[in-house]
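User: I'm writing a short methods note and want a consistent example. For ADP-dependent (S)-NAD(P)H-hydrate dehydratase, I'll paste the sequence; you return only the structure tokens, no commentary, since I'll be parsing the reply automatically.
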Amino acid sequence: MRVIEENAMALGLSSLQMMESAGRALAEVVRGYRPENVLILCGKGNNGGDGMVAARYLQHDGEVHVVYPGPEGKTPETAAQLQLLSHSAVHLHPVRCTSDVLALRRLFEVADVIVDAILGTGGSGSLREPLAACADLANEAAVPVVAADVPTPGIRATRIVAFHRPKQDAAEAVDIGIPLEAECFTGPGDLTLVPGRASSAHKGAGGEVLVVGGGPYQGAPYLAALGALRGGADLVRVASTASIPMPDLIYEPLAGTHLAEEHLETILRLVDRADVVVCGMGLGTESHAVVQAIAENARRAVFDADALRHPLPVARETISTPHAGEFARMTGHVLPDDLAARARSVRSAARDGTILLKSPVDIISDGTRVRFNRTGTPAMTVGGTGDVLAGLAGALFCHLPAFEAAAVAAYGNGRAGMRAAGGRGNGMAATDLVEYIPAEVFGRR
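Assistant:
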């Protein structure tokens, strides 16, 4: 929901607008009980703001009492709702400590309905005072307790009113006006999934990526490796038959002109230590036995380009990043032009992992879910941008599930390409794109 809400705001739906819709829907549910006395328990976060909006809509239906922690620490949206409530026909009860709550025991005893708007989807851990005392008194009351979005830990909920989508069983979802595209298309909200780096982090905490490629096209694996490095991986190794000196990358030399079975002992040793393997860039058609061996031994792998041949490689967790021609080679089916029909084709093909179809509108599916990505530019038809994408997906795959890693990679890579093309136009090179990845993936969190 954090992703969806951030994407909705990027499309122009403000947090206050969503809060207004959520609170109004919550008030309608409460109104169905025909209460004469309503007690609304609010926290400092936006879930508390939802409860305050509900109080404003219920102000003419009977006695409405709002209990909330005061006076500081509220989100700007919740502070704005409290300001509106101060001009409304409701009773406000700020509480600072347990004794303040216990002094309000009578409100819990006479309430016909209690609304739990203390902690929402962002809440975690056990309740602290004075809100813990609110939870205790709510549990003692023999009246319905309506939870806003999710029940606060420790409070029994008679009914759960979930906003936009249910977060748990037995919840009933209400529409709060979020545009469909906020959920179906990637956006800046997806970047909130990218984990931060702890101050105590050490070398390797960002993940270790092994890139296996090269042969006919020796630059391709190095572009993927740069994508992985800029995508946050701490250690990036390139196992290839050719060396392109880059001091930030670790080169693992392989003899000959292309990858062969004689290299497997060296490669599999590196596969064992890597968090993610990125394989296929520039391999040509002679190395598929190596690809299959990598797939059988890798925990997590991203397969691209020449790796996408039959038999298709499948690691324990897999991301495949084909373009339309490679998808046809994988599946035997030419993609239709209609976007919805293309999405159904990708979803049907994603039986053994996640597929990220590279196209003017990228399609990501794990066989159940489908996301679309429309970042990018025609200037990204230059060779190498897909290699960079595979490497970026590999770095994100160190920390995120396959579907989420693929979605964030598609969005971030496309955004970086748009930035690079802004200065280079159709003269953009894949290495130009690489330089903008950190700002787009990490700078916008």
